[in-house]
């Protein structure tokens, strides 16, 4: 069985990473148009860099949870027949042991040089304008897909959805495109695992409610039984 799993901020919530649109979410404390657009970066790079530096630093305070680990068990069983497509910029899937993970919105622990176009794994801050390890220029920005920019690797995602037998969406509100349209692109059966109904809940053949750390291990166990 070929499965595509889409994950959103909800899968990392129980690890201690704030989601975007839930109460107390990131977009309550910050205007996304001021910290997550190329225009905002041009207007006030310091504000944007500090926003992502704080999120990057927070990664060292959190660990993958039972939902991340359950997807690793599924990958061990399915191998290349499982693809995790994530909107998340954290590295909790990889730290849990997932190998087949595609980040459509980029990664916090990656810096992108606006001068030489190289990308570099990055742990520390960017606000102090460090030199690019490739070209030496001070043009490193967060390797994050901002509003108005094109998500990464959409061809790969479209092909996987077109060939899948099952599409499962975990921990996303279903309001940001193109991810919110994947349920329509998926050729196979569709399942939503979410704390609350997403904006596209009625587009799924089946929806289950609850925290990811309960729903995902139970679903994986059921599938592998
Ligand atoms: N378990 C399962 N689902 C959860 C949990 C949990 N513990 N906690 C929250 N959720 C669900 C919420 O009900 C909500 O539907 O996760 C979803 C989180 O939604 P958002 O905060 O909107 O996050 P997401 O859907 O990932 O955002 C999509 O928007 O801001 C941009 O680029 C950013 O990738 C992000 C995109």
How do the strands line up in the largest sheet? 3-2-1-7-8-9
The helix/strand class is alpha/beta
Give the CA-CA distance, first to last residue. 14 Å
- The low-pLDDT segments are none
Kindly describe this structure.
The protein is of the alpha/beta class. 34% of the residues lie in helices and 20% in strands. It has ten helices and nine strands. A six-stranded parallel beta sheet has the order 3-2-1-7-8-9, sandwiched between helices. Strands 5-4-6 form a three-stranded antiparallel beta sheet. Helix 9 links the parallel strand 7 and strand 8. Helix 6 packs parallel to helix 10. It is globular, with a radius of gyration of 18 Å. The two termini are 14 Å apart. The structure holds adenosine-5-diphosphoribose. The site of adenosine-5-diphosphoribose has 22 residues, from helix 1.
